[in-house]
Amino acid sequence: MALQYDLIALDVDGTLLTDDHQLTVKTREAVREAAERGAGIVLCTGRAPVSVFPVLEELGLSGTIITHNGGATIDSDTKTIIHQYEIAPQQLEPFVAYCRTNKIHFDINTAFEMMVESLTPELTDMYTKFHISPSVLGHGANLPKGLVKFTIFGDKETVDRVQMDWEQWPPTLLTIRSGDFFIDVHHPEASKGRALQQFAQSQGIERDRILAIGNYYNDISMLEFAGCGIAMGNSPDGVKDAADVVGRSNAEDGVAHALREFAWS
Questions:
Q1: What is the pTM of this model?
Q2: Fold classification of 7-83+190-263 (topology level)
Q3: Contact yes or no for 178/69 (Cβ under 8 A)
Q4: Which PROSITE patterns does the record match to this protein (predicted)?
């Protein structure tokens, strides 16, 4: 059976993994089969690299990963930065001030390091699920250089309110909902789609030879860029509308079914 796509871009949370952050046997085997057939596999995620490496290892793969929603493209073999979109600390100051005033938890990220002002047991548990142990800077700390992403975390009602507030601000940085409980802030040119385009060009891969699978708003740019964009069945309607195809959910091995139906025939 002939391979239909040379490059397959996969979101991680809500797509490759189940809602309890597990990689099922069927999904793992389908991704490995795609790689064995000759497709390049690139994970495209809002996660930091350290949070992606365990998933990549479980898949038995290596190579380039697109992290921080396209903010940093990383070589997983050498643990080096291929490209990043850096945010100036002063650009983030209004967001930091807002979070401090409204008691919204946030973390700040360089390509390889995450920092917070404080941690609670609830927050520690949340970060542990993503294989992350952030550094604690203390309240009122100055922002470092080399930042690629700023993220808030809270209950859905709180995050909804923050999203509405920030949508009224001048668009100096890009704010994007990366999950029900998260909003990410990054460089206005950073996106999964833009990073995927850069990577594909570096590999000489045409757009129509790219398959992308995702489930949330931060995946729309790569679903629209790819020759075939597949939204998971658990995606919000806005994501499904942006895709070429709507597949099964992450609870139904949606990635495995999509690969076997579309990646080769």
A1: 0.91
A2: Rossmann fold (3.40.50)
A3: yes
A4: COF_1 (PS01228)
**CA distance from start to end of the chain:** 5
Can you say whether residue 170 is alpha, beta or left, with left for phi > 0 and alpha for psi between -120 and 50 degrees? beta
Could you tell me the residue ranges of all domains in the chain? 7-83+190-263, 89-186
Beta-bridge partner residues of 65: 74
Q: Provide the residue count of the chain.
A: 265
Torsion of CA 20, 21, 26, 29, to 10 degrees: -170
User: If one looks up domain 89-186 in CATH, what number appears?
Assistant: 3.30.1240.10
Give me the percent of the chain exceeding a pLDDT of 70: 100
77-94 pLDDT, tens digit per residue, is: 999 999 999 999 999 999
Q: At what angle do helices 25-36 and 49-59 cross, to 10 degrees?
A: 80
The amino acid that residue 73 corresponds to is T
